[in-house]
Amino acid sequence: MRLLIAIIAIFFGLNTTGQARDIFVDNLFGDDRNDGASARLTEFGGGPCRSITKALRVAEKGDHIIIAKNPEPYRESITLQAGRNSGIVGQPFIIEGNGAVLDGRQAIPEIAWEHFQHDVFRFRPNRMSFQLLYLKDTPAVRREVKEDERRLPELKPREWCLFDRHIYFNAGPSRIPINYDLTHTVLPVGITLYEINHVEIRDLTIQGFQIDGVNAHDSVFDTSVVGLTCRGNGRAGISVGGASRLRMEACLVGNNGTAQVRTEGRSITRVVNCTLLDNTGPAVKREGGEVFVEPVAKTVQLPNSPIR
Fold first, then answer.
1. What angle (nearest 5°) sits at the alpha carbon of residue 253, between those of residues 278 and 274?
2. What pTM was computed for the model?
3. Which CATH architecture group holds 19-104+187-300?
4. What CA–CA distance (Å, rounded) separates 291 from 276?
5. Sign for the pseudo-dihedral over CA of 59, 61, 63, 67
6. Where are the domains of the chain?
7. Rama region for 188: left / alpha / beta (φ>0; ψ in -120 to 50; rest)
8. How many CA atoms lie within 13 A of 59 on its CB side?
9. Could you check whether the bond before residue 295 is cis, i.e. omega within 30 degrees of 0?
10. Distance between CA atoms of residues 290 and 269, nearest Å
11. How would you write the pLDDT of the chain (308 residues) with one tens digit per residue?
């Protein structure tokens, strides 16, 4: 009987630890009608996917998603959830970013702007909380408004604020908003993690999302983010909640709206050899959970400066 049980265990073990597949993504030369099985176009539907979302849809447990770095960012919000987007012991599910950029911003339509007074213009975004306005590829200088403020604060040229359910922007003398390259945060979260385990996400820049760059929502175990740059997101660069266990290694996090790293619930976050910019918000904001730093994370106190 023991021998039979051992044979069954080995059989099922072999069938759950198959060879990991590489699934390729290329937002310039790919097509979501492809199978993602190769980095170059082949006959009969072979070639890279165009979106990370499609790659996640066809991926199986323990696969590797390999993203091509192109000048054009990947403008999508992705979710890793449950078994298909997990790995197994010794065979993690991997997203290899290769330095690509995941971006949640959109341009502001010209017709959305209205003149308010003097050099100040305004528009009303669809979502109000945790908004950020970008000037070119850097968060514009923001003037904070107190909750009980009843009057629009004075804005200097190229400054903005969130007030009375609008974004206000001072375009400066004889200028209007369309004279600038202005974008704002639209997509909610760059990467959402939920009920996954044995996952590694490597070498991505995640920017311009309305809430968080990475959100480990709940039940995330044995998961690491390595070499990420999380910048200019509306709430936090990385947020860890619920009962999640997340390891951050060699990450650069800064210029996010209210905190660089945010934790809540019963989560545990390990921060290893990371640089956290204590500029637009605290390096770590705990609303619950535990944070362990190994060794002491490098916290750099800087003004609102771009991360390139």
1. 95
2. 0.89
3. 3 Solenoid (2.160)
4. 14
5. positive
6. 19-104+187-300, 107-185
7. alpha
8. 33
9. yes
10. 6
11. 444 444 444 344 444 456 889 999 999 999 999 999 999 987 766 899 999 999 999 999 999 999 999 999 999 999 999 888 999 999 999 999 999 999 999 999 999 999 999 999 999 998 888 899 999 989 999 998 887 888 999 999 999 999 999 999 999 999 999 999 999 999 999 999 999 999 999 999 999 999 999 999 999 999 999 999 999 999 999 999 999 999 999 999 999 999 999 999 999 999 999 999 988 889 999 999 999 998 766 666 544 444 54
Cα dist from 57 to 85, 147, 302, whole Å: 9, 42, 40
* Contact predicate 278/255, CB 8 Å: no
In sequence order, the 6+-apart residues with CB closer than 8 A to the CB of 198 are: 62, 86, 87, 88, 89, 91, 92, 93, 221, 222, 223
* Backbone conformation region of residue 195, classed left if phi is above 0, alpha if psi is from -120 to 50, else beta: left
Distance separating alpha carbons of residues 117 and 12, to the nearest angstrom: 70
Centre a 10 Å sphere on the Cβ of residue 99 and count the other Cβ atoms it contains: 13
Cα 53 from chain centre? 14
Please name which of 273, 254, 161, 248 lies closest in space to residue 207, comparing C-alpha atoms: 254
CA distance 40 to 246: 34
Of 298, 255, 254, give the one whose Cα is nearest residue 274: 298
